[in-house]
Automatic annotation (TrEMBL), chain A:
<dbReference type="GO" id="GO:0009306">
    <property type="term" value="P:protein secretion"/>
</dbReference>
<dbReference type="InterPro" id="IPR002553">
    <property type="entry name" value="Clathrin/coatomer_adapt-like_N"/>
</dbReference>
<keyword id="KW-0653">Protein transport</keyword>
<dbReference type="GO" id="GO:0006886">
    <property type="term" value="P:intracellular protein transport"/>
</dbReference>
<dbReference type="InterPro" id="IPR032154">
    <property type="entry name" value="Coatomer_g_Cpla"/>
</dbReference>
<dbReference type="Pfam" id="PF16381">
    <property type="entry name" value="Coatomer_g_Cpla"/>
</dbReference>
<dbReference type="InterPro" id="IPR009028">
    <property type="entry name" value="Coatomer/calthrin_app_sub_C"/>
</dbReference>
<keyword id="KW-0677">Repeat</keyword>
<dbReference type="GO" id="GO:0072384">
    <property type="term" value="P:organelle transport along microtubule"/>
</dbReference>
TrEMBL record, chain B:
<feature type="domain" description="AP complex mu/sigma subunit">
    <location>
        <begin position="29"/>
        <end position="168"/>
    </location>
</feature>
<keyword id="KW-0333">Golgi apparatus</keyword>
<keyword id="KW-0472">Membrane</keyword>
<dbReference type="InterPro" id="IPR011012">
    <property type="entry name" value="Longin-like_dom_sf"/>
</dbReference>
<dbReference type="GO" id="GO:0006886">
    <property type="term" value="P:intracellular protein transport"/>
</dbReference>
<dbReference type="GO" id="GO:0006891">
    <property type="term" value="P:intra-Golgi vesicle-mediated transport"/>
</dbReference>
<comment type="similarity">
    <text>Belongs to the adaptor complexes small subunit family.</text>
</comment>
<comment type="function">
    <text>The coatomer is a cytosolic protein complex that binds to dilysine motifs and reversibly associates with Golgi non-clathrin-coated vesicles, which further mediate biosynthetic protein transport from the ER, via the Golgi up to the trans Golgi network. Coatomer complex is required for budding from Golgi membranes, and is essential for the retrograde Golgi-to-ER transport of dilysine-tagged proteins. The zeta subunit may be involved in regulating the coat assembly and, hence, the rate of biosynthetic protein transport due to its association-dissociation properties with the coatomer complex.</text>
</comment>
<dbReference type="InterPro" id="IPR039652">
    <property type="entry name" value="Coatomer_zeta"/>
</dbReference>
Length: 871, 196
């Protein structure tokens, strides 16, 4: 009898691995015995195992050597040893991509697949399909069809699963096997049923009607396989979502009925499907939640995990629905599986009352170090949500977060904590000092540049306005001494902000700045020099412009900064400074889009650039200057009409360009010479129309109108245009798209288009509004009081003003604290032409809302325009 | 304005909470299967999703990460690592893992793991330990191949799997083994029963 393994295995130490020191070349050498006659099944089997083991360990086989081994292996088909044959199939599958000419085994496999030995047939089909491509598939199609409906379950399953794998490659061929798959679906074997259902769905998934019919059939006839039930539930809930059918649909009834299935797997799948459905009411959720509640006390960890994870999701949208499970969740917080315990606690944090927060936080801190980063982030997010719900608990949370911040953890985790602390600071002014202190401590030993710069930026913004700003200086200057360039540069900027706002700190900041000017990095040195020079002027207006509201320049490349330094450096006596002011202001307005692009609702920073480029390519629009603002698109037609038109307004210094994006939804028409005729209500003058030459079916096209803004009356900022779509229609063949030669003119009335004051103002974020307010000065200040009778709450009033003026809310003044009767809203923007505009709006809630608006700008007309449009 | 929790901070976990991410109904349930020894070395592993950890290095990193997070808590049977749901089981000096996406039905993955474990228990005659597994590695490969095909659950009943594989474990009569080998395996058995 041959020993299964080589001698050296016995000699090697405890826990030896007989495969550990395998050499690829030695194994391939050994593979030569495949050619010996008679075949020795045991030895060959062992060598094949070694080859598969090596492949599994990631050993690389060259094409040549793999092909050689593969061809040698084909000889083993002569042996009738069952295990050896099965291992050959495995080798074929493993080598299908490495070896060449694997198709030579096709006939052997086809023979096995149709042979008498049932043990071979299933695996042979799977191996065969692995090496078959679309062209060869036709040759074995007949066998595949037979195999799918074979009475031996393993053969049928193998054929179905292999067909599923091949759908991606040869959809058209596999599609022809639908009837066979249909027959297999009514098999008694549960796996065959499942596989048949899976294949049928993949073949039909793009045909909603067919899917619906199939569901109908199977939900009525009932299936045996729990896997198939899970699949049916998924298909049903997808269909429900796509068709937006109500919860009275039979599909929903089916899913709900699965909650009473005898297999836990199916019950859980159904509960999970219901929980994930959009717009589920508490009543519909209740049965799903109660089965999940039962699972919470299951002895199986996987089931408890699944249940509590799903409940956690429910708690996000419907915390009240989960309250019933609080007791069960309480029992899980001491679960030995930390993932389950964490999920239970975070769920309770969402559903529990304020009084339970302390206890839960204590519980979770006892094992937070044992859970994985992913779950730590979950915990942080739960805390963040909790802080918004119970602002009074911020000291407990802050403490907890600072402890977490000290623990080890990856970047994602640390970032979540820092974000959470920052949001607490922003929400609760009382927590500011503690929060900043924790963050200061964190940057003392922080390996993540991104977080360090983010915190330094925050310190610069918030620190100078705290009661004792001096304590932050040490932390910031430590960064200058110890950290990388990016952090040092951020630290210098933060220092400058302290110097600019706190006169008593200025001398020490200047000393520190002096030392930063010796830095080895260009950017750090440039910033230090620049701030040093600005600070030395001791002028409030300069500080405001270049230090606290100079954020725009921060995101611009350092080149700009250097340009600024050069500009300011030479003429640095007092008188010449205001002169240098003008060109810089112009530069700043150019950066405005960069600043606004930080706003989340804008699709991307380059949107306006793209439009600018597109417009510049049209000869009629040359010489308009640079694009000032591009508005969001406005629909001028109802959805699902013959023609869909939306308009994007582009504002230039003295003109506006209206871009009409049109889509023709009629497949039997070709539109030509498409334009939108506009009739203004005010003194606006339409200069040019740029028509779209062709508008074929479903291909969007754009036409443009150029309008001159009235120059003699600059206060006329709003205007209504009545718009009509005019075009030449050519009927065409819906199939070929071939148009007739003759056409006729036609028109289509669109909705009116409004130009409002918001189209003339670009949002600009002023991080320090008070400083900006002082900088603009009260030369052109006007104030007026209005009564907003129709508005009932402060929130609504704030929302209305922001959307009406299209300006950027500053200092988070767009959030109205709860239970207050008055509020101040700060808005900043740049008016067309480059004038800064600031609006301070005091709101008081009485019977309706009273609003006192104060407007400042560098230009008087702008102030008048704003006030006139509000009134 | 209420802030949504499902922000982009955590790239995977919460992507499942919005109903925008909808799981496409599919038979491709299993993303990967692997068996590691008690040092975290790979004995067998199969990745069925080409996009998940395409390179060997990424696969081994993932396995290492999973192993570090799970080998201490061997009473647990489920974990969440790198955005994947992982069900696992350990036996003496072996760790069995089945990996699925975060949206996958955990109980389906559990069915696969149980089937794998019980089938191996049968072909290894209850000696589900490293040495025995390596001695019958061909049988182990065949069992895995019968349970999962390209990520699809092919069979979940261990009896069916055994029948299909029809594998006979190596039956070396005692006399064939050297005394040293018997001592060695006895020592290991004792060691593990003490360590557990």
């Amino acid at each position: 009898m041959i020993k299964k393994f080589d001698k050296k295995d016995e000699e090697s130490g405890s826990g030896s691995n007989p495969f550990q020191h395998l050499e690829k070349s030695a194994v391939l050498q050994e593979a030569r015995i495949f050619n010996e006659t008679p075949i020795n099944p045991r030895r060959c089997l062992h060598i094949l195992t070694k080859i598969i083991y090596l492949l599994n360990q990631g050993e690389h086989f060259g094409t040549m050597e793999a092909t050689e081994a593969f061809f040698a292996m084909t000889r083993l088909f002569q042996s009738n040893d069952q295990t050896l044959r099965r291992m050959c199939y495995l080798t074929i599958k493993e080598m299908a991509n490495i070896s060449e000419d694997v198709i030579i085994v096709t006939s052997s496999l086809t023979k096995d697949m149709t042979g008498k030995e049932d043990v071979y047939r299933g695996p042979a089909i799977r191996a065969l399909c692995r090496i078959t491509d679309t062209t060869m598939l036709q040759a074995i199609e007949r066998y595949m069809k037979q195999a799918i409906v074979d009475k031996v379950p393993s053969v049928s399953s193998s054929a179905l699963v292999s067909s599923l794998h091949m759908v991606k490659m040869s959809y058209d061929v596999v599609k022809r096997w639908v009837n066979e798959a249909q027959e297999a679906a009514s098999s008694d074997n549960i796996m065959v049923q499942y596989h048949a259902l899976g294949l049928l769905y993949h073949l039909r998934k793009n045909d909603r009607l067919a899917v619906s019919k199939m569901l109908n059939k199977f939900t009525k006839s009932g299936l045996k396989s729990p896997f198939a039930y899970c699949m049916l539930i998924r298909i049903a809930s997808k269909l429900l979502e796509e068709t937006e059918a109500g919860h009275d649909s039979p599909l929903f009834d089916f899913i709900e009925s699965c909650l009473r299935n005898k297999h836990e797997m199916v019950v859980y799948e159904a509960a999970s499907a219901i929980v994930h459905m959009p717009n589920c009411t508490a009543r519909e959720l209740a049965p799903a939640v109660s089965v999940l509640q039962l699972f919470c006390s299951s002895p199986k960890a996987a089931l408890r995990y699944a249940a509590v994870r799903t409940l956690n999701k429910v708690a996000m949208k419907h915390p009240s629905a989960v309250t019933a499970c609080n007791l069960d969740l309480e029992n899980l917080i001491t679960d030995s599986n930390r993932s389950i315990a964490t999920l239970a606690i975070t769920t309770l944090l969402k559903t529990g009352s304020e009084s339970s927060v302390d206890r839960l936080m204590k519980q979770i801190s006892s094992f937070v170090s044992e859970i994985s980063d992913e779950f730590k982030v979950v915990v942080v997010q739960a805390i963040s949500a909790l802080c918004q719900k119970y602002p009074r608990k911020h000291s407990v949370m802050m403490n907890f977060l600072s402890n977490m911040l000290r623990d080890d953890g990856g970047f994602e985790y640390k970032r979540a904590i820092v974000d959470c602390i920052i949001s607490i600071i922003e929400e609760n002014p009382e927590s500011k000092e503690t929060g900043l202190a924790h963050l200061c401590e964190f940057i003392e030993d922080c390996e993540h540049t991104v977080l360090a710069t983010k915190i330094l930026h925050l310190l610069g913004k918030e620190g100078p306005r705290t009661p004792s700003p001096s304590k932050y200086i040490r932390f910031i200057f430590n960064r200058v001494v110890l950290e990388s360039e990016a952090v040092r540069a951020a630290a210098v900027s933060a220092l400058a902000k302290f110097g600019a706002q706190n006169d008593d700190l200025l001398p020490s900041v200047l000393v520190l700045m002096q030392r930063c000017m010796m830095d080895s990095d260009d950017e750090v040195r440039d910033r230090a020099t620049f701030y040093m020079n600005v600070l030395q002027q001791k002028q409030k207006a300069l500080n405001a412009a270049y230090i606290f509201n100079g954020e725009n320049t921060h995101c611009a490349p350092s080149l700009n900064l250097r340009a600024l330094v050069e500009l300011t450096q030479k003429p640095f006596d007092m008188k010449s400074v205001p002169l240098a002011n003008t060109p810089i202001t112009e530069q700043k307005t150019e950066f405005a889009p960069v600043a606004t692009s930080k706003l989340p609702e804008k699709p991307g920073p380059t949107r306006q650039d793209i439009y600018q480029e597109q417009l510049a390519a049209i000869p009629e629009f040359q010489g308009l200057g640079s694009l000032f603002k591009t508005s969001e698109a406005v629909q001028l037609t109802e959805a699902e009409t013959e023609y869909v038109v939306r308009c994007v307004k582009h504002t230039f210094a003295r003109h506006m360009v209206f871009q009409f994006d049109c889509t023709n939804t009629l497949n039997d028409q070709l539109l030509q010479k498409v334009m939108v005729q506009m009739e203004p209500s005010e003194a606006y003058e339409v200069l040019h129309y740029v028509p779209a030459a062709n508008l074929p079916y479903s291909q969007p096209g754009s036409c443009y109108s150029l309008v001159r803004l009235p120059e003699d009356d600059p206060t006329a900022v709003s205007c209504t245009f009545s718009c009509t779509l005019k075009y030449l229609v050519k009927d065409c063949d819906p199939n070929t798209g071939e148009p007739d030669d003759d056409g006729y003119d036609d028109e289509y009335v669109l909705e009116d288009l409004e130009v409002t004051v918001a189209d003339h103002i670009q949002k600009v974020l002023k991080p320090n509004f008070a400083a900006a307010w002082d900088e603009v000065g009260d030369d052109f200040e006007k104030e007026e009081t209005f009564a907003l009778a129709s508005v009932r709450t402060l929130d609504e009033a704030v929302g209305n003003i922001i959307s009406f003026l299209g300006m950027q809310p500053c200092e988070r003044s767009d959030k109205v604290p709860e239970n207050k009767n008055s509020h101040i809203l700060f808005l900043a923007g740049v008016f067309r032409g480059g004038h800064d505009v600031l609006v301070r709006s005091r709101l008081a809630l009485a019977d309706g809302v009273t609003m006192q608006v104060t407007v400042r700008s560098s230009d008087e007309t702008v102030v008048d325009i704003i006030l006139a449009s509000v009134g | 304005m209420p802030r949504s929790y499902g922000n982009a901070n955590c790239p995977y976990f919460w992507s499942t909470c919005g109903h925008t991410v909808f799981q496409e109904p599919s038979l491709y349930t299993v993303k990967a299967v692997f068996i590691l020894d008690n040092d975290g070395n790979r004995l067998l592993s199969k990745y069925y999703d080409k996009e998940l950890y395409p390179s060997m290095k990424e696969q081994k990193n993932f396995e290492k990460n999973v192993f570090n997070k799970t080998h201490k808590a061997d009473t647990d049977e489920i974990a969440f690592v790198e955005g994947m749901t992982i069900v696992y089981k350990c036996s003496i000096d072996l760790f069995f893992y089945v990996v699925g996406s975060s949206q996958e039905n955990e109980l389906m993955l559990m069915a696969v793991l149980n089937c794998l474990f019980e089938s191996l228990g049968q072909i290894l005659r209850k000696n589900v330990e490293r040495r025995c597994l390596l001695d019958n590695l061909d049988g182990v490969f065949l069992v895995v191949d019968e349970i999962i095909d390209g990520g699809v659950i092919l069979e979940s009943d261990p009896q069916q799997v055994i029948q299909k594989v029809n594998y006979r474990a190596d039956e070396n009569p005692l006399s064939e083994q050297s005394v040293a080998q018997i001592m060695q395996s006895a020592k290991e058995q004792i060691k593990w029963s003490i360590l557990k």
